[in-house]
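Justification of resources, computational component.

The compute hours requested in this renewal are based largely on the per-chain cost of generating structure records like the one below. Each record pairs the submitted sequence with a full structure-token output. That output is archived, and it is also reused by downstream analysis tasks.
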Amino acid sequence: MTGIGEAFEAIPGTASGAADGGAASGNADRTVGGAASGIAGDAIGEDGTIGNGTSTNNAMDGTMGNGTPMDNTTSNATGAEPHVPGAPCADAWREAGHALPFQPFNPFPPASDHEAWRALPRELADLYRRRAAAHRERPWPQLLAHDWARFFRDGDRHDYEVRYGEIRRRVADDLMAYGVARASETDGERDVDRTGGTADGERAPRESAPYESAAHQSASHESPSRAFLEDAIDGVMLLCDEAAWQIPAHNAYVRDAPQLPWPDPDRPILDLFACETGQLLASALHILGGDLPEPVRRRIMNELDRRIVAPYLNDTFWWMGEDGEPTNNWTVWCTQNVLAAAFLAPVADGVRRRIVDKAVRGLDAFLAGYGEDGCCEEGAGYYHSAGLCLFGALRILADVRPDAFARLWREPKIANIATYIVRMRIRENLYFNFSDCSTHTGLMSAREFLFARAVGAGGMARIAAAEWRHGLALPDGDDTMLRINALYLMLEARAAGEMLANAGNAANPGPVPETGETFFPSTGIAVMRGGGFDVGVKAGRNGASHSHNDTGNVIVYRGGRPVLVDAGVGAYTRQTFSPERYELWPMQSSWHNLPDFDGVMQRETPDCRAEGVRVSFGELRSIAAADLTHAWPAEAGLRDYRRSITLDKRAGTLAIHDEASGTFTTATLHLMTAEEPLPIGDNAGDADAAAFRVGETTLEIRRSGGPAGSPCAIGPVSVEPKPLDDAKLRGEWRSDRLWRINVPFAAGGSGTVDVTVR
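The structure output for this chain reads:
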């Protein structure tokens, strides 16, 4: 079972005991939790209801720009192109003006709209009920003080975050199951609105029991819907009673400051999961409406005001991108959920305008941190919490003010951010895993489908629909991070019928331009395909958000099977985002498909970079090449180190050519494999050539050391296992070990090595 922190996080810290927020900013501590916003007072009393209007369909026709160069195009880079800041969100908001009222945000109708819930595809409705029913076999988890404190004792995040996630997942599942069960039980009854009245305006009887709202009294006391409602209210009250909504690893007010050992209830911190919790409670208001007892509704609104709206409006957190502060996935993840809380709960429009004012600045800061190519430097695993959260924020804004924000779907950068994930895809649930990323990042689902539709990427939409359809037939995983966001479930319910229709075309999806060869100049990542190969190359820089020391690394799959791999990242602990991060072996260059020089590895600084990057794609051959001399620090003794990777699509071969010179004594190339490399022939001694079988693929290695390509006499090629002592990595690779081939290839300061994969 994986905890929340193992699924998503933020960028590595640099201060002792730092939270995983990013590079130290040096900002002064700012007081959190100033004057309350007042949303809980007159907002509910304005009309007594929560808006349930029809969602705007924002899908756009046209093509998407995926930043892919044409055949035989050469691109030059120095590791990363400069990002030109812009303000498309703030511009759209300013130009449209604030005079018009907001339209209701209705990702899916509330439970009182029985027809909408009865119209759900049967398999999805059954799934919602099945998930919620499974929770009732277990007691509610408890968040105890000693579980919080464990992070500070031994760095473990897992136990606390598992319990934290289970509570929220259970509430979200209850909400969806209640909508389904209530609709099935009220077939033929008069619909009851969410304020406790019937559809024709007649007031319903007074509540006669703590859990029985006026809308619910006709249901049997033993009915499934009553059970789901009671369970949801239990969970809502547990959330309202929690001492803190942030997790221990994020309990700091200043970016990269040491975490405080205990939460301060008078100074709420807006971290990823505090904002998620606010969204979940607002979703409960939206879905349950008048079926929630009125005191519970008021309690939710008070907590949203105190813990979400007031700190968001009255304080500046690092992830907001103010004053040029670097942003990452936190920016859009938090912003999306604050917007969801503001527009799913009955918040006054004046407060909502202030929230939108701040949100558009944060979204623009996030967009300014991306290149025009849309590449996520945090890796494909963070697309779900970066690119898709950008989609979530834009979807809310475009729904509530389509006159201002619907035009943003036509922005080329936003289209490229949308399609980034499919361009990094190898097969279903298999991705190039640069940075803190697993090869298996999960099946695509409703958010990918809706984002693709919004920007006009029809091929990606078909792939997402097919993967979602496949996922319905699979057993639920045990990752507690899944399904804690009820907004995502409502979007899934809204799109389910359309996804089923698109999934029917998945067997023959036609051309999918988003999945071709791609070069991302902003990060130096190139993806080459053909001849049975999928090849990813990183020719950018180190020191980025969530990055490893892996400039020059190459990942190779043949026929969908791993040949040369990136180990990925283990379960997050306190060390993962601390000054000791790069003592973890998966972060180190010598445990990637890279060399070291007299044992000197790359460093975690942007100065370690690729230069002179050249990428060309052709029908018969694709090439990526770079000068990697500056990817190692000066003590490596490099004068020159160059790597070229050539994919011969006609021959079905991949050639990696490295040449190095300098003052070092020995250079050793390391090659990581998921399967044990089995020697072919005699690889013993100091032979210039060696060959290995890795699964169904052959690796042929030829090396030369010394001046003018003289015979190599610097030691044998060796193979060593790398035991996986991390449960997450064992699950990722379905093995208790990886393998490393060590190839000494340069003696006396110069040498070359060629690796041919066929």
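The first helix runs from residue 4 to 7. Residues 1-84, 188-210, 213-220 have pLDDT under 50 and may be disordered.
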